[in-house]
Design goal:
mainly alpha
Length: about 170
């Protein structure tokens, strides 16, 4: 959940690449441009919303474990053998609804224009939420959690790129 929204940055890159592919202005291409514009706007909104949550005082106890972009995780974060503390779990539970709202707003918009992309993103989010549950239950360390979220992000990004090319 904490890092799950960072995977959206990869989706943003996919949308940006897709925008570059638009050269002519046929009706289908104009429709495609509208879709890309909607998706880009939704992802930008998600990034802004998630950044606001990340920079909030409630997120403070989690920042040392969670980079704003999962791809920027340090070796220290990736190898962190500590389990979530009671205060960290409390912070996660406090911010989760805010991040969930950010994510839902973006998914709702994207699902209207490109339901296949939103379905892929939802799978990514679900996998990251499952990992978050393991972190909260102290069955997974911060490092394990960060690596799983990173891996889901990379794999999901590849699937998103393939789908964007198909569209």
């Amino acid at each position: 959940m904490i890092c799950a929204l960072k995977t959206v940055g990869h989706a943003f890159n996919v949308v940006a690449i897709a925008t570059l592919l638009v050269a002519c202005a046929t009706a289908a291409q104009r429709q495609y441009e509208t879709i890309v514009s909607n998706d880009r706007s939704a992802l930008e909104g998600l990034q802004l919303c998630a950044a606001n949550v990340y920079n909030s005082p409630e997120f403070s106890p989690l920042r040392r474990h969670a980079p704003i972009k999962i791809i920027d995780a340090t070796l220290e974060q990736l190898s962190d053998d500590s389990f979530a503390t009671d205060d960290e779990i409390k912070a996660i539970l406090q911010i989760h609804p805010k991040l969930q709202w950010c994510r839902q707003q973006a998914l709702d918009r994207i699902s209207q224009s490109t339901p296949t992309l939103s379905a892929i993103m939802l799978v990514m989010v679900t996998k990251n939420e499952d990992s978050l549950i393991e972190l909260i239950r102290r069955k997974e360390t911060w490092g394990q959690y960060t690596r799983r979220v990173r891996d889901v992000s990379v794999q999901g990004s590849n699937v998103l790129q393939a789908e964007a090319r198909r569209i």
